[in-house]
Amino acid sequence: MTDLRPLIPLLLAAGILLAGNGLQGTLIALRGAAEGFSPSLIGLMGSAYFAGFLIGCLYVPRLLRAVGHIRAFATLAAIGAAGALLLVLFVNPVAWIVVRFLSGICFSSLFTTIESWLNSAATNSNRARVLAIYRIIDIGAVTGSQYMIPGLGIEGFTTFAVMAMMITLSLVPVSMADRSNPQPPAEFRLDLYEVWRISPLASIGALAVGLTNAAFRIVGPIYGQSIGLSVSGIATFMSAGIVGGAIMQYPLGAISDRYDRRVVFLFTTIGALISAVAITWFAGDDYTANMVLVFLFGAFAMSLYSLSVAHANDHARKDQFVLLAAGLLFFYSAGAIAGPPAASFLMQMFGPQALFSYTSVVYAALIAVTLYRMGVRPSVPASQRRRFAALLRTSPVFMRMARRGRNRDAADDH
Prior knowledge:
It is a single chain. By secondary structure, the protein is mainly alpha-helical. The protein has one domain (5-413): Growth Hormone, Chain: A. It has 17 helices and no strands. The protein has helices spanning 8-34, 39-67, 69-89, 93-121, 127-146, 148-152, 158-169, 171-176, 192-198, 200-226, 231-258, 261-283, 287-301, 304-314, 321-350, 354-376, 396-413. Helix 2 packs across helix 10 (200-226), helix 2 (39-67) packs antiparallel against helix 15 and helix 10 runs antiparallel to helix 16 (354-376). Keywords: Membrane, Transmembrane, Transmembrane helix. The chain crosses the membrane at residues 41-60, 72-91, 97-118, 130-150, 156-174, 195-216, 263-283, 289-309, 321-343, 355-376. One of its GO terms (molecular function) is transmembrane transporter activity. InterPro entries: MFS (IPR011701), MFS_dom (IPR020846), MFS_trans_sf (IPR036259), MFS_YcaD-like (IPR047200). This is Major facilitator superfamily protein.
């Protein structure tokens, strides 16, 4: 068994960053609401983050080629930590929108740097285990970070200081780790027409996931606050959705490998629609009902992106995987830029249940598109389908890692 110990520092740095990122998203929403920012302003802050996130993903390869992984990581972490402190030094919606835009660039570039490093360091014999550990770290870090907020509070300086410390401390394992300078990833070619041509359904699916899931992640805390949840209750509410998605991705993916992936995609979207409608009409301010239903919502809604990518890969050549990763990430980010302000505006106009009414409308439209596409394009035979991979929406490099791991598993099966 190949030794994974050399990769521990990089995985540790990834965990610290994923936790800091998860903490920042929820904290911004709650602290912004406490400062009197309207839901629409908080939604715009989410849009700014995802706009920066997309820019960082697409342009960080140039930075890595220019200065190398360690220098790039140090620069980006320093800017990210400074941004966390600026949020509490200048409590102003315009300043926060600018900082969130820069944070999006920093975090996506940091994740791309780490994933590029892991991709270079992992071998065919341990790549699948590295991916599995990375997924576990993602779920554990993002979920666990939610509970730092009730422990530290949303008022004052403390939580922002801890967030800046976390980003800064991620430098320690990277700086002390293997000092090799791996080959930077290739430029992510962005050909949206080609991605659309390969799979219109996957492109629309990624857009719809951005419209809905980003809205949930950005303004979900405001929904929780509006129905009377405590800070710890809001942390549990957000965590329930995340954990639900983590639990269901692999079972749904395994089923989609065996049957028409579009049928699985269709029923997953229907599940997301039903759970969103149930939260809108039946949950009210009932604590247990909200927790159970948001778990089901996350179980279906958070699985749709990986299913979209898997469906696109079924129609793609091997040399198109990274192109698809970049293109679908673009469609997701476009939806994520538009989704939070749309949902927050509707919440401001019609109340907290408008968040899940909005997602219901998007899922209903996605169901209609899926049924149409099933009628105009034949299904891919099971023998020609690519194996499902549960994906993080952190950078196109993760797609490359996942594909290499799946290719290795497929070779072992034969």
